[in-house]
Automatic annotation (TrEMBL):
It catalyses: 8-oxo-dGTP + H2O = 8-oxo-dGMP + diphosphate + H(+). Its cofactor is Mg(2+). GO terms for molecular function: 8-oxo-7,8-dihydrodeoxyguanosine triphosphate pyrophosphatase activity; 8-oxo-7,8-dihydroguanosine triphosphate pyrophosphatase activity; 8-oxo-dGDP phosphatase activity; 8-oxo-GDP phosphatase activity; metal ion binding. One of its GO terms (biological process) is DNA repair. Pfam families: NUDIX_4 (PF14815). InterPro entries: MutT-like, MutY_C, Nudix_hydrolase, NUDIX_hydrolase-like_dom_sf, NUDIX_hydrolase_dom. This is 8-oxo-dGTP diphosphatase. Its EC number is 3.6.1.55. Keywords: DNA damage, DNA repair, DNA replication, Hydrolase, Magnesium, Metal-binding, Mutator protein. Residues 4-131 form the Nudix hydrolase domain. It comes from Hominenteromicrobium mulieris. Belongs to the Nudix hydrolase family. It comes from the Bacteria.
Amino acid sequence: MENKKSVTVVAALVREGDRFLIGQRPEGKARAGMWEFIGGKTEPNETNEEALIRECREEIGVTVEVGTLFTDVLHDYPDLFVHLFVYNAKITEGEPQRLEHQDFRWITPEEIDDVVFCPADVDVLAKIKAEFPAGGAN
């Protein structure tokens, strides 16, 4: 499939203690019902950091401070090729709201296996489990 669309996606690893924030994709979108990190596609002429700040405002109504790159992964979906950049991020203003996701929640690394995530997040989740082991509040 040579004509498959390729996109850059940014996501926020927002942590509070040993928990991190995830959102459930809404009905009507690809991978509906699956869980993911808050974020989305970059727009033309937009930096990853600018895109992440915009996406967090649009999706959950908060302002974030974008920190260091946590990891980046490449994933080949049947309909899309994704380069996902996951940044450490901190909410600096507002409380998360359901603006675009059908739900959101805070989970611990121990709860990762109980949630159905988008396939592009699998490597990110493995890194979270390795870096933030059970009971560790880094």
